[in-house]
Amino acid sequence: MGISPRIVTQDVTITWDGVPQRLQRGQVIDVVPGSPLERAIGAGRLVPLPGAEPAITPPPEVVAPPRQEKPLTAPRPAAQARKPAAKDGDNS
Questions:
Q1: How many CB atoms lie within 10 A of CB 6?
Q2: pLDDT digits (tens), the chain, 92 positions
Q3: 23 lies in a domain?
Q4: Model pTM above 0.70
Q5: 14 lies in which domain range?
Q6: What is the count of structural domains for the chain?
Q7: CA Rg, the chain, in Å?
């Protein structure tokens, strides 16, 4: 049995994934409340299966990718930062 079994209360034809689907009155189908399938069929055409409570599943969590931070770098020592410029003809 599915998460949320329901009975179709009247014949209905819906288009799902580009294909017409005919649902007959009395057919049991698993339709989560608030889902796109429920909107396509129509909530008024569905009733819970006796003895089974429809489960409400939480919407899937949207997880953001981990944030990439710049690595911390230590400032260069002042002695290295101000290296004397080479003079013309000086090979050191």
A1: 23
A2: 678 899 999 999 999 889 999 999 999 999 888 899 999 999 999 999 887 665 555 555 666 666 666 666 766 666 665 666 666 665 55
A3: yes
A4: no
A5: 5-46
A6: 1
A7: 33
DSSP symbol at 14 = E
**Does 52 reside within a domain?**
no
The conformation of residue 44, written as its DSSP 8-state character, comes to: G
| Of 42, 70, 44, 38, the residue nearest 56 (C-alpha) | 38
How many whole angstroms separate alpha carbon 37 and alpha carbon 23?
Answer: 12
Question: Cα(first)–Cα(last) distance of the chain, in Å?
Answer: 83
- Give the side-chain half-sphere CA count within 13 A for 30: 7
Residue 18 lies in a domain: yes
Residue 81 lies in a domain: no
